Amino acid sequence: MNTIEQNPDVDKMLSTFFKAEMPVVFPSLKLPSMGARIDMPMPAVSRSAHRDGQTISKSRLSLAVSVALLIGGCWYLSDQMGNAPERSKATKVSGDGATMPPKIRKAIEEPKKASNMP
Amino acid sequence: MRKRDEDRTMNSDPPPAGARQSDFEALYQRHNREVWALAYARWMDADMALDIAQEAFMRLWKQWEAGEDIQNPRAWLLRVARNLAEDYAKSAFRRNGTTPPQLMNGVHSKELQPLELLERQEAFAQMRAILEELPVGDRDILTLRYALDYDAQQIAEILGINATAVHMRLSRARQRLADRLTAQGMKTIP
């Protein structure tokens, strides 16, 4: 019952094919050594520095300085803007949209006042 | 039968470390072909089957290292190899495919291949294509039969079916194969 009927041509071809496909020599398994632990890759930081907390404090300090500079810079700039000298207030002279600096206007108006005096 | 008994009792009483390693290497030598054959039957790719076989054995080793009690390492290996072969179908590598090394970047091998070897490779490719059209179950049987020269009883034992089913499926698979080979005018492999 266990014998398998043969079909010479197909059998030969299949046998040739499968035997050629199968590796002649199986590569030996490289087993990890007994009890060896696989270390997980760690960041490139020295353990002593990490243990002292120096690395953490440095990074936190850098972050704090950066944030302080950012906030300070914004505050300084906005303060500068607030204290900036007021733009010369040009005064409208007539209804046609023409403007005149206050000094000139004053100079023009003063003789008028003088002439109005009795 | 004796081989199966050896497998079953292998882990019942853990031997010392060195002995365990030599036991494992013996197990590898005994079953690597079967594990390879099942992985090969799934995808018809010899190199990939070798990778899968090695991975299955590595996983078994890790189980041993973790202290798992595997009663039947042979059955465990065959099951894991099948699962790995199935998982391979879902991998990006399989989906995207690859190019034969000699054609990569349009660079051809400097070595000219003998005509006979080319003819043989062509016949193998033809045979592989025909085999790929067969159901996986039939390929399992054909691979175990022709790569390992297993008889119906041994094949039935590995696949968990009865010997009569092996005979029937093998006969049908061969007939289908013969028809297709004839249709393609392939009479022999050089």
How does the major sheet of chain A shape up?
A: 2 strands, antiparallel
Principal-axis shape of chain B: globular
- Protein structure class of chain B: mainly alpha
Which quaternary structure do these chains form? Answer: heterodimer
Q: What is the number of helices of chain A?
A: 4
CATH architecture annotation name of the largest domain in chain B: Orthogonal Bundle
How would you describe what is shown here?
The complex is a heterodimer of chains A (118) and B (190). Chain A has 118 residues and is mainly alpha-helical. Helix content of chain A is 54%, strand content 3%. Chain A has a domain at 49-80. A two-stranded antiparallel sheet of chain A has the order 1-2. In chain A, strand 1 and strand 2 form a beta hairpin. Chain B has 190 residues and is mainly alpha-helical. Chain B has helices at 2-9, 17-43, 46-65, 73-90, 92-96, 115-132, 136-146, 152-159, 163-183. In chain B, 28% of the residues are buried. At the A-B interface, helix 1 of A face helix 2, helix 3, helix 6, helix 7 and helix 9 of B.
List its traits.
heterodimer; A: 118 residues; mainly alpha; B: 190 residues; Rna Polymerase Sigma Factor, Chain: A; Arc Repressor Mutant, subunit A; 2 domains; 9 helices; 72% helix
Task: Give a short overview.
The complex is a heterodimer of chains A (118) and B (190). Chain A has 118 residues and is mainly α. Chain A has helices at residues 8-21, 47-52, 54-82, 102-116, and strands at 91-92, 99-100.
What is the element layout, followed by pairings?
The complex is a heterodimer of chains A (118) and B (190).
Chain A: H1 8-21, H2 47-52, H3 54-82, E1 91-92, E2 99-100, H4 102-116
Antiparallel strand pairs in A: 1-2
Chain B: H1 2-9, H2 17-43, H3 46-65, H4 73-90, H5 92-96, H6 115-132, H7 136-146, H8 152-159, H9 163-183
